[in-house]
Amino acid sequence: MKVLLLILALLISSMLLAQQDDTVFLKREVADRPYPFYHAVFIDTGIKFKTELTSFNFNHFDSATYFDQLTNLRPLKNSKTSIKNNFPRKWIALYKLKGKYYLYRPSDLGNLFRFELTDSTTIDFSMEGPEPSRINKVSFPSPTQAIITRTNYWEGKQVSIKIVDQAKGIAVFTFSPTKYNKHGYKILMVDGAKAHLFPIVVNYCQTDKQPEFEFDKIDFKSLTK
Q: pLDDT below 50 — which residues of the chain?
């Protein structure tokens, strides 16, 4: 069993290393109980995982979730919302580690947070799938800031987007309190069109879901001052 496990680990390691000669591993572990598995957290600059992270396409489950919730969001009469043509529409969560920014491919893809703006809705891609909100109003206090008021079942009434690095497409998203989170929260995001500028931390295990990798805490105050 241990010999087979070793062969398995070497094969997987070779496959990962083949993606890039200078792959940096942040964590690696091999176990043979209760069954053989290989777990690695590594930094990737290839196209495979980046394509997966930057895709906003719906699968069958996503479509069912989205349209089921959308039917409960009645459009406002005489509502006129306008998203500027040059304002990014698709956003992906961004993380920081030792002073550098990374995308993150989680062990559980339900933990991959993305955000999309359409002409009439916002879409939060979360553990529950793509969840729509009706846009009630959009304002642009500056060319790099948008404030969106919206309606959804989780009662998250507002999201503010402040672009803090236009060249790299980095922005701070501030979400208002909801019925599940009474304090609101902030997330660092990157314009999907500029996601290729950043490497990816990949949390890889073919057989099991693993604890998610812990990144450094982001100082949002310094980013938005």
A: 3, 5-7, 10, 14, 17-19
pLDDT of residue 180: 92
DSSP symbols for 157-203: -EEEEEEEETTTTEEEEEEPP-SS-TT-EEEEEEEGGGGGGS-EEEE
Domain count, the chain: 1
Residue-level pLDDT at 13? 52
Q: What is the model's pLDDT at position 59?
A: 87
Q: Which two tokens stand for residue 156?
A: 């998250």
- Would you state the pLDDT for residue 197? 97
**Domain enclosing residue 101, as ranges:** 2-224
- Indicate the pTM of the whole model: 0.88
* 30 DSSP β-pair partners: 38
> What does the block give as tokens for 96?
């920081």
Angstrom distance (rounded) from CA 19 to CA 47? 9
State how far the alpha carbon of 22 is from the alpha carbons of 31, 105, 210, in Å.
Answer: 25, 19, 24
CA–CA dist 89, 201 (Å, integer): 24
Please report which residue ranges of 20-59 form alpha helices under DSSP H.
Answer: 48-53
